[in-house]
Amino acid sequence: MTNTKTKKIKYQYLFFLLSAFFLSGCSAKPNEPISKSAAYFDTIITVTLYDSSDEQKLDDCMNIAKEYEQLLSATVSDSDISQINSNPGEWVTVDAKTIDVVKKAIYYCDLSNGKFDITIGALTDLWNISQIAGQCNSPDNEMPESVLPDDAKIKELLAHVDYHNIEIDEKESKIKLNDPLAKLDLGGIAKGFIADQMKQYLNENDIKEGIINLGGNLLTLGPKSNGKPYQIGIQYPFDHSGKVIDQIEVKDQSVVTSGVYERYFTVNQKRYHHILSTETGYPADTDLLGVSIISQSSCDGDAISTIVLALGLKDGMAFINSLEDVEAVFITDQYELQYSNANIKK
What is the mean pLDDT of the chain? Predict the structure, then answer.
């Protein structure tokens, strides 16, 4: 089990390295780039700076990730989110940063009409897809039927997915979850929010060129020193060698990718991935293998990528077109590429 999970992390890290290769190119500055990696939120975080040799700035970025993990992770027993989940119906005093993230998440719950809903945590726990996927030893991640949750239990917990049960008291810095069978899960937005906080910190310290990489969340600082954009490779679905299916250009923007190939297992050759539908309680039935969101904010991109993947190509394209300053690259289940804007691909 452990060896398989380690292998998957290595595959992920290989892709991150490839992404960094595409992103960095040749630096016009005499100083070599500096970089640091660490594991938070069950993923590898890498920060690379091209216009600074100050290693402390890298340490500070990792401390930002550590701080937010202690606040937002549902698997950290004393985090703010765990305390809210453990005390339903009660006001829980939390950090102001936690309130900022929850408010942003509720905004996307509203915008998506509940397609994105952070009270899905109990269903996430029931499916346990990340852990089961980490146990798979076969090339196609095939598992026995016994890993599938009971349909009646899915329906029972689905009835309690409703973000309207969240109350926030900003003045007292408190949050209350009114439904005892609901749980908060910020996995669809937390990494993006953290990436934005890192970028803000670096910009405030006059660092304008670099890459923040939180798993599928890539956030670039400025254009490169020569004024050219960063070249970002998008992973070929289900390929662990670092192969890319597309390449796009960005300047001072975020690219967040969500895919059904990230965390999944199969039962009788049917794929069960980690993006759950708030309508059925099952992994979303989508005609997309992946979607990459290009936006100014990584937090926005994180939530939007989850929403669009669940919506599928037609409704997902319409959703993207309803937003300002947000574009997308879609990978269909036929491995075809679709673009919200033809200028993405130059």
Answer: 90
Query: Taking the CA of residue 148 as centre, how many other CA atoms within 13 Å lie in the half-sphere pointing to its CB?
Result: 16
Q: How far apart are CA 50 and CA 34, in angstroms?
A: 7
Closest C-alpha among 101, 97, 98 to residue 84: 98
For the question of whether the overall pTM of this predicted structure is more than 0.85, the answer is yes
pLDDT digits (tens, 9 = 90+) for 163-202: 999 999 999 999 999 999 999 999 999 999 999 999 999 9
Return the structure tokens found at 103: 């408010």
In sequence order, which residues have a C-beta less than 8 Å from that of residue 55 and are 6 or more positions away? 34, 36
Q: Give the strands of the sheet with 217-221, arranged side by side.
A: 34-40, 43-49, 210-214, 217-221, 254-259, 288-295, 327-332, 337-339
Q: With H, G, I as helix, E, B as strand and everything else as coil, classify residue 157.
A: helix
Instruction: Please check whether residue 261 is in contact with residue 283, taking contact to mean a CB–CB distance below 8 angstroms.
Output: no
Residue range 245-274: mean pLDDT, rounded: 95
Q: How many CB atoms lie within 10 A of CB 9?
A: 15
Q: How confident is the model at residue 139 (pLDDT cuts 50, 70, 90)?
A: confident
- Res 21: pLDDT: 39
Strand duo 217-221 + 254-259: pairing? antiparallel
Q: Is 8 helix (H, G, I), strand (E, B) or coil?
A: helix
Sign of CA dihedral 17, 293, 184, 193: positive
What's the CA angle centered on 322, arms 72 and 284, to 5 degrees? 55
d(CA 48, CA 35): 4
* Residues, the chain: 346
Pairwise CA distance, residues 293 & 309, whole Å: 10
Cross-strand partners of 244: 235
List C-alpha distances in Å: 309 to 24, 35, 92, 256, 316.
28, 31, 33, 12, 7
Residue 283, SS3 per DSSP: strand
CA gyration radius for the chain?
A: 20
